[in-house]
Specification:
The protein has about 260 residues and is α+β, with helices and mostly antiparallel strands. It is built from five helices and 16 strands. The longest helix is centred in the middle third of the chain and has 16 residues.
Length: about 260
Amino acid sequence: MKQIRLQLLIILCVATLPLPASAQRALYILSQGTGIGRQSLIPFDYGSQFEPDLLRATWDNDEHIIAAGFTFHGLQIATAPHPDWGNQTYRFATEYPEEFITDMTAKGLTITELTTDGLNWLAIATEVVPARPQIFLSFSDPVSDDERATLRERIGSLAADHYFITDAACSGNMWSIVATYNPEIEEQIFDFPQAARDISDFFMRNQANGFRISAADYGNGHYLCVMTRTSGRPRPQAILPGVENPNEVMDRYWGMQFAITGIGH
């Protein structure tokens, strides 16, 4: 495996508060045309905890952790072979894994998953081709119009440098954001829907203009939902909020060549 060289790393304000998040039913983001192979979703059981043996078994089977999320169903992990990904490693911790993120990005790995339930954090670092520099930042949950306007300016300044949100996680009233460099993205928008059905409405309003959901998670009484528009023809996407029995639903979408690319809660 060739070593990937990190081009740039900036870490901004990585403080978080280790408070428990509300147990929300999973929000699944599925996309076509990703090149991702046949997927599995593990485990299904409510209240399931982190099990390192599941990750090791995944890697022993030449598969990758594509997406993960702490949900009403417990910690869920979507696995599959990925054509552009190499070795993976992880950190499971009771606080924001700042040192792990710094070490892994310094070694040229990309943070492809960051999720929390407010008490535990899971970060997945992956050898990705091509390597993409990343920015990590955190901010207090914006509650006023002025605070949200300030946040939009802050996120907009990242987008001006071609850094776009690829993951989000909330602990207490603090959001932690992963922004990844991608010059192929033309525009990014985001909103704070109050309910899972509002995410579907947000998606429906913007998909006709080429936007696709790239990150979504729940915290402090609402969601953060991010949509991006890239150059070229947008990939078909499906949004499944509030799925109670994912093992009964996913086979149908996998049969249509959709792959889970994000798990929110």
